[in-house]
Write a structure and sequence with these properties.
Blueprint: E1 11-12, H1 23-29, H2 31-34, H3 45-65, E2 72-75, H4 78-93, E3 96-100, H5 105-116, E4 121-124, H6 134-143, E5 146-151, H7 163-172, E6 176-180, H8 192-195, E7 199-203, E8 214-218, H9 246-260, H10 263-284, E9 288-291, E10 301-306, H11 311-317, E11 321-322, E12 324-325, E13 327-329, E14 333-336, H12 338-342, H13 347-350, E15 353-357, H14 364-383, H15 386-392, E16 401-402, E17 405-407
Parallel strand pairs: 1-11, 3-4, 3-5, 5-6, 6-7
Antiparallel strand pairs: 2-8, 7-8, 9-10, 10-15, 12-15, 13-14, 14-17, 16-17
């Protein structure tokens, strides 16, 4: 069995949430805590040594996505990167902010903040596969210039947006494009120069690197929008202040190098595990639904609904695996995922969803155990579920849902 089940721990299938730090990454980082510990701003030997390590790390990441090193800004993670790119750009341009209804909660939070500041915000439609409605986007851009933020790979469904035509459309109407690549960086090939993206966010802990470090890619001629007035231009090009954590930057660069060195082989391996899971779970159980585009996706994220079971209960009942629920539970209501709601997924199917996230250490045996665990848990919960009885009786239980909230009683 894979290393994710050592010491009788549950099998880890939540790689979209975070990943374990690769031992090779840790090994590369360690000298920069004790041996090469200088501050990059110091003019002596130790500072120069640290600065060289930082420069090499920045160049490695730039090479991996085909951009210039001067376009890579180190941050604490993708959330900070997105905040810098979006909030500062909108503040400078005073234009509309566009983002998809299926965007990550951190970007939705930025949209809420902009609305509170009386900045115009527009949420873009997606189709029932979770893919952006290109025609709708064009309609909006014809009348409103601004900044568009798109999640390249959706964190809940794994849906992969066809980003090239989106970028071209934005630039056609003199708008900028920010890409949240948190779930895509190091997992699918991204030639940022060829795509002509303006801003991109990514995090180290999603690709077996350390937590607390990420990058913001910003096209060189767009850095004027996010540069802080009177900031020190020698520290992250005047975009972000503070002491640079060289060990974390070195670790992120190593994780990036390792991930990009095996993207094709890893995609093929994970795609086989994905199909194994889908085939087996559908063979074992009825009323199983895979949510999101089936041909345009990152295969490592599977959003699956077990109709008749509440996702949170199913997650807790499946004790041999560590996964995420597609719905958040409170004491008196079940809130349906805003992603599935935007895709038009029926409420009773949306509230029964789980996210299975396959990663570097996942094995075929892990998938078999997950299928067995989820099958047994589903059969148990359905056997005591009034909702399942109503479904089998042909009763439309979706009348009990209102705007994503299940009303008990």
């Amino acid at each position: 069995m894979g290393c994710n089940n050592q010491h009788n721990k549950p099998i880890y299938l939540d790689y979209a949430a975070t990943t374990p730090c690769d031992p090779r990454v840790l090994e590369v980082m360690l000298p920069y805590f004790n041996d090469v510990y200088g501050n990059i701003n110091s003019l002596h030997y130790y500072g120069a040594e640290a600065l060289e390590a930082l420069t090499n790390a920045r160049q490695q990441i730039a090479n991996d996505i085909n951009v210039s090193a001067e376009e890579i800004i180190f941050t604490s993670g993708a959330t900070e990167s997105s905040n810098i790119a979006i909030l500062r750009t909108i503040e400078k341009l005073k234009q509309c902010f566009f983002t998809a209804k299926t965007q990550h909660a951190s970007i939705i939070g930025i949209a809420d903040r902009l609305q509170a500041l009386k900045q115009p915000v527009h949420f873009l439609k997606v189709n029932n596969e979770g893919l952006l409605d290109i025609n709708y986007l064009e309609e909006q851009l014809k009348t409103n210039q601004g900044l568009v933020s798109i999640c390249l790979v959706n964190n809940e469904t794994g849906v992969l947006q066809n980003i090239k035509p989106i970028v071209e459309l934005c630039h056609k109407y003199n708008s900028l494009i920010h890409v949240d690549a948190t779930q895509a960086y190091g997992k699918i090939c991204c030639d940022i120069k060829a795509l002509d993206i303006d801003f991109m966010s990514a995090s180290g802990h999603k690709i077996y690197g350390p937590k607390g470090i990420g990058i913001l890619y910003c096209k060189r001629d767009k850095q004027k929008y996010i540069r802080v007035p009177r900031a020190n231009p020698d520290i992250e090009f005047g975009i972000r202040a503070g002491t640079i954590p060289v060990p974390l930057c070195v670790g992120l660069a190593e994780a990036s190098k390792l991930s990009h060195s095996c993207i094709d082989a890893e995609l093929e391996r994970i795609a086989k595990l994905r199909q194994l899971f889908i085939d087996k779970i559908k063979n074992n159980l009825e009323e199983i639904y895979i949510n999101g585009a089936q041909t345009s996706n990152y295969p490592g994220i599977i959003n699956v609904s077990f109709r008749g079971c509440e996702g949170e209960s199913l997650m807790m009942e499946s004790k041999r695996i560590a996964i995420s629920s597609g719905s958040a539970c409170t004491s008196n209501k079940l809130t349906i995922s805003h992603v599935l709601d935007a895709m038009g997924v029926a409420p009773d199917i949306a509230q029964s969803s789980l996210r299975i996230a396959i990663g570097r250490h996942t094995t075929e045996e892990d998938i078999n155990i997950a299928v067995e665990d989820l099958t047994n848990a589903t059969l148990k919960l359905r056997s005591i579920s009034a909702v399942w009885d109503m479904i089998k009786a042909g009763i439309d239980i979706n009348k009990r849902f209102e705007r994503g909230i299940y009303k008990h009683g």
